[in-house]
Amino acid sequence: MIDQDALAALDGLQWLRTGEEVEQRFGFSASTVSRQTHRCLQRFGLRLERQQGEWCLIGDTTLLEMERRVHQSARWLGHRPLRLEATYWSGPLLCTPLPPRWSLGLSSIVGVPRNFQLVRERIVDVFLTGLPDLPAPDDADLTALVLSSMPVFFVAAANHPLTRQASVSVADIARFPTLALPAGSYPQVEAALKQLGLWNHPVRMMRYRRELWEGRAEEELTVGYGTPLSLEVSGGTLVRLPLELPFRSGEGLVVRREFAEHPELLALRTLLLGRLTRLSKRHPELTLVPR
């Protein structure tokens, strides 16, 4: 067994990337983060390695996984704050102010694979994700509670040629470069856009950076994608084009199956639905999904 602070330092570094962020969330000093992380790695015979900017463990993690199971159960029992990750729009819009009993991540991880991995490995307890990319229905570990639904549409700079058209078709969009995030980051979205002949202008971004996403559409002829909620936090310089994509987004809580009915998760769901209800007053296209 290893104490909660030691494992929290290691998990926090994998979740939040830097010792400074771990200090802010867990109240550890920088020296404590370093010392406790080193202690954990020695105890389990592992090492940390940077892969595409993220800290990953190298070695046999079997014993560590058993330890994480115990520590996660302790969090759900109320012994430590639960850990919540979110998207770049749901972090500020839905998770602020911070829900009681929860600690929020950076809300900057692009795509679902890394976020799902953090929940699967019990580093993070819940991921507030954007639809349609959810865990598969037959996923042995993860499930999702869908909270809302909303349209996805094209966006562009205010002076973009397409903003002067009363109607826009996919063929019109295809005349311009369209944004594409790293391959595999949003598998269902990527497949749908490729079917339309889009997703052709890669953005090399593993963590959300406004200047690389909204900024690319603001300054160039590039066409981007948005939703009512993402557009609200985009900076106000992008214009919605009169064409929706053939799939819907929304919000969903991704959690390990054994905690899908936990009172703490259901309380979080109720709180977030309340905030979504208030947001729907100014975004009528935002539809709540009853359980």
Q: Could you explain the architecture of this structure?
A:
With 291 residues, the protein is α/β, with parallel strands linked by helices. It has eleven helices and 13 strands. It has helices at residues 4-16, 19-26, 30-44, 62-76, 90-94, 113-120, 170-174, 187-195, 214-219, 228-232, 263-280; strands at 47-51, 54-58, 82-86, 102-104, 126-130, 142-146, 148-157, 179-180, 201-202, 224-226, 238-249, 251-256, 287-288. The strands form four sheets. A five-stranded mixed beta sheet has the order 4-3-5-12-6. Strand 3, helix 5 (90-94) and strand 4 form a beta-alpha-beta unit. The chain is globular. 37% of the residues are buried. The mean pLDDT is 91.
- The proportion of residues in beta strands is 15-25%
Let me know the number of strands: 13
> What are the segments in which pLDDT stays under 50 over at least 5 consecutive residues?
none
Number of H/I helices: 11
Cα distance spanning the termini: 39 Å
Name the structural class. Answer: alpha/beta
Helix content: 25-40%
Order of helices and strands: HHHEEHEHEHEEEHEHEHEHEEHE
Quick one: biggest sheet? 5 strands, mixed
The whole-number mean of residue pLDDT values reads 91
